[in-house]
Amino acid sequence: MIKFFLMVNKQGQTRLSKYYDNVDINKRAALEADVVKGCLSRRKDECSFVEYKDYKLVYRQYAGLYIVVGITDTENELSIYELMHNFVEVLDKYFSRVSELDIMFNLDKVHIILDEMILNGHVVETNKSRILAPLLVLDKMAES
Amino acid sequence: MALKIVKGSIDRMFDKNLQDLVRGIRNHKDDEAKYISTCIDEIKQELKQDNIAVKANAVCKLTYLQMLGYDVSWAAFNIVEVMSSSKFTFKRIGYLAASQCFHEGTDVIMLTTNQIRKDLSSPNQYDTGVALTGLSCFVTPDLARDLANDIMTLMSHTKPYIRKKAVLIMYKVFLKYPESLRPAFPRLKEKLEDPDPGVQSAAVNVICELARRNPKNYLSLAPLFFKLMTSSTNNWVLIKIIKLFGALTPLEPRLGKKLIEPLTNLIHSTSAMSLLYECVNTVIAVLISLSSGMPNHSASIQLCVQKLRILIEDSDQNLKYLGLLAMSKILKTHPKSVQSHKDLILQCLDDKDESIRLRALDLLYGMVSKKNLMEIVKKLMLHVDKAEGTTYRDELLTKIIDICSQSNYQYITNFEWYISILVELTRLEGTRHGHLIASQMLDVAIRVKAIRGFAVAQMATLLDNAHLLTGNTQRNGICEVLYAAAWICGEFSEHLEDPKQTLEAMLRPKVATLPGHIQAVYVQNAAKLFATVLKGQEGNPDAQAVTQETSQLMIERLPLFVQSANLEVQERASCILQLVKYIQKLQLKEVEVAEEVTALFAGELNPVAPKAQKKVPIPEGLDLDAWINEPPSESESEDEKPKAVFAKEEPKHSRTRHTEVDEKELARRREARKQEQANNPFYIKASPSSQKIYQEASGVEHIPVVQIDLSVPLKVPGMPLSDQYVKMEEERRQKEKDDKKKKEKKKKREKRGRGKHMDSAPESEEDITPAHHVDIVTEEMPENALPSDEDDKDPNDPHKALDIDLDSLKARPLADSEKLPARTHRSAESLKSPAGDRDETVTPEPKKKIRKEKKEKKKVKDKEKIRSSEDKKHKKKQKQDPGEGEEEEEVHVKVEAETLVKTEDSEPTESLPPSAPTDASDLDFWLTTDPAPSGAQAAAASTPEEATGAEPVEVKGQTEPDEEMKSKHKKKKTKKEKDDMDKKKKKKKRHHHHHSDREETESVQNGTVEEEEEEEPLPPMSNYDLLAENDFIKMVYDIQGNLQDGSQVVVSIIFQNKTSDFVKSMEFNVLDSLNSKLQRPEGSTPHDGLTVPFQLPPGVSNEARFVFSVQSIVMPQKLKGTLSFIVKSDDSSTHEKLDFKLHFTCTSYLITTPCYSDAYAKLLESGELKSSSLKLEGVSMPFHHLLARICFHHHFSVVERIDSCASMYSRSIQGHHVCLLVKTAAETVSIDAKCDEVGLLENVLEEIKQTFSQC
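Predict the joint structure of the above. Result:
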């Protein structure tokens, strides 16, 4: 099961956070700092899985942005690794060449995309057009 | 008024939206906090407005701030307001904010119930979707209870988009409101076969998650998942299913066997690494769950190891990491297959990635053996030397110690070597693990008596060179080893060569710089050494001088410790100082004191098991929770801390206190103090230089500390290096080997040396004998310790509540109280009890299938019911069943226009007869089904078919595998159940053969005799015969034919430990004959024994299985064998042997195989069988007992029984038919028997005779 999904930049600033198990807001900051430190300090030639407390962290770097996912040890690391890429591809398709600013300015939309893909800590959808369908409907609504 | 509105809208135009907020925060990098607090103030203003758009915008911004770590719970009510907006664009903002900030403690959640319910039933699927998504994040037990029914209805929504979300949310609902699981489960199960792959995948996800926590309740779903696994092409789903199977196999080994093949196929075919990895993991889990005696899985292991090797060799670090991770799982059960890749794993130690190196270290832990321990540790020591970064080096250090000390130092053959490794490790600069090394030193010195002399010598040298260890740094944890060194030297001082010199070393002034707890040990052990010196000098002519000198030394040096700031040190030192002074007085009077002084430290300390305290039974009447006195006020009791063995170093300077007072204050105080000092005539001023430092420094941090760089590894003089031991050990082993070889050669010369290759054979583990007799003292346990280990299960685990037996659902219809709460004004659909509306068509396609299956089951149940109470005759119209599901495919039950029983099929929701075992036996049936029936079986099955000219029947499920047979002997109950099942199966088949067979309900056919339940019960029977027994161990055994292989039998042996000690390292060996051979793992010689895969704690029994291959089964046979084992008592362990004779009776080659009367008749008519007969006199047992005995002990099944005459059938593993006709009259039993192999028949009859002569 996926426990949390984070996007942070190289400076360690959180750009997106989603917790699938409730974590106290005060503990979130500490956890994020810890997690980010654990992942950002790693070199490129090191593997993308880090053990952290009860979780396993899977992370992936896209330019200046890191995606870090905390999973239970029963989850398949490689599939999560693929899922992150899938997520970035969806973002890329929607924002056409997504950047850190896109994510910051459209946090709510990114959340919609993420919610379509992961629900309750489980992968629900990986098909790009089906993931984007509700968002496109929403955009149409906003235009009219 | 109009102006106000205009102003409002203009304000709104200037309101910040999310983008502005983000931009603003970026532009105020220097005073971000201040900027955000003004923003929050603005947001608060915005929230006060009536305009919902403004509010939504404000909430949207709050969501962003919440992500940055600001608490926005104060806006919870506004979030609810936005959630209830009718406009979707706002609603979703509300839900998003709620999902990010609401949690169980948020009290406004209860206000949302109705809103959420409204959204859930909204005609717009996106409304419903957003509500579901939000709910998944903040569902509370209350919400779960109130909305469970609504969500369950959504599981059957027409839009797959909603269905998949509803299914996933149900998991959260189950967690929060466990009562919902039972009513919702049938629908959840339906979703496994949903036409939409997304919904299917969601259902798989939920059930996987549920099953992982309580796997036994989901075992009955295995066939369904198996079907999904073999049909699905979605890797996401496959991964989940395969993971689920990984959780199920430990409960059901037969499932594992069934899985191996499809999984290996996937491993071969898939290109997705994630899937491959998952398959490998599950195959490993399967192999772990299968008993290790089964030989034919070595291919699967090899495949896994090969694939993992490819992963590890890959340049992708991720794959390398996972490969190592999976490898460590194999290691636990099949260490040999991993050990052959030692080179690769050692190579990984050099990897640039630390986590990969750590994984490789983990693997090494399990790979060591007596043979390679020294080599591996030597490699690790090299890595320690060149490791950069203390964390990794510390990790290496702990691993080295772990590896060496694992399972009671099992792999250490030379403890001198180990001690020197520990001593070498003390030279690590700046390690945190000083106390770990210290505790190892203590442990080894205490528990390995033989090593004490050496250890003491080493420790004395360490003490002598203590200055090298403590060196410059106090914070250096390594000085902890001095704690151990001092204690060892003191406690075992009789081994010291020159106790006086060590005593001198322990009383050096420098010692006073050590941490207090170490000094305390120094002082105490100095006293011990003093006693030893006195004792050693007794009877010596110059004793007087030496002892006086020693006493004087003590008296001179101890005052240093008496002044110590540490209470413990001070107390001990002053006590001992007085003691020594008194002794000195006595010495002057020439009184012999040595005896008395040594008596102070007499007695041996034995190690106590870590769990000992826990195991002390609480005396009756003692309530530790009760107050003895009324509790005092809650003030002081808190600052008491438990004291550790190695007390934490007290920080010398409490910096915090300094930092608390600010600079100015400090300066002021300093000034005041100086003033005071100047005015105080008694104050002695310090020398100007130190005064200067004092003045300059505001805090202790500023005192310059010279760092002494000790990059050159320290060589403590007089200490041997561990490397030398490696060499020595090699030489020793070589010598032993040579000796052995010489002996072997001698033998060979006698035997005219055959098999020269023996020379080059690698030395096996057992060849290595320890360098000295190692006597590891076991840990002490309290008397009458409680034997069992309590489970440390977390009582708060939410999944505990979900441990619900779902199979009983059909047996016990949902009580009213269990139905999900539904509101009365809901539509009729949701009003129905969930169990009842299972049959409601939601999506027509899968529904049909389910209905068919259900009908199928019901049919069976109905029949049962009718048989048990014949007066209740229902009518049933049976349609042709095309046999869709897996089960049907294999049985092909076609009940066409049956005359048997007919019931009306009009009430699908009628309450079903109690048949809890039905599902279980369905599963059993599915599991027993051998995917590829052996030729013999097929042949046997085809005979009757051709005779009756009926359509083909597959008799796959007819025979039971050995597991089931075994359990049958253990429990009569299981047997009954199984037979019930058999009967059912047979019934189905019989319909097929005899289209009108009215009597069948009365006649007893084709089954064992359980049907005569009314008759007197059978005495308990056991098929386990005594194999051998001595004072230590008892072995009973049972032999069963192996279904899959006509040339194999499985011998199950129960080993019972009769002693009060541990029995371990059991090795089972048998002298093979030409006809029967013990199956040994590949690569072992026919003389190697098999290791029994468990140890036996006192009084415990356990079962192991061994596979034998046999060629001819015509004759019974006896094989001689030996069981060797080690009995390990408190302080000794002895090697023991037990010889036995394994008796392979001809009966053990027979397999209980059912047969139909018509096929049976055909068989007898064929004339190919040869006959023989047997008469038994004086058998006084009831006829059905007699039959039961034959069935049970000789693996027959009753074909038909009429009064006191019965026909019975059995088949050998090689396909011989054995038919018996048993008649009884007045205590005489005559058995006419026919078989296609006369020898076999004669022997079986002889054995039957034996059975009855014994009773």
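Chain B has a mean pLDDT of 74.
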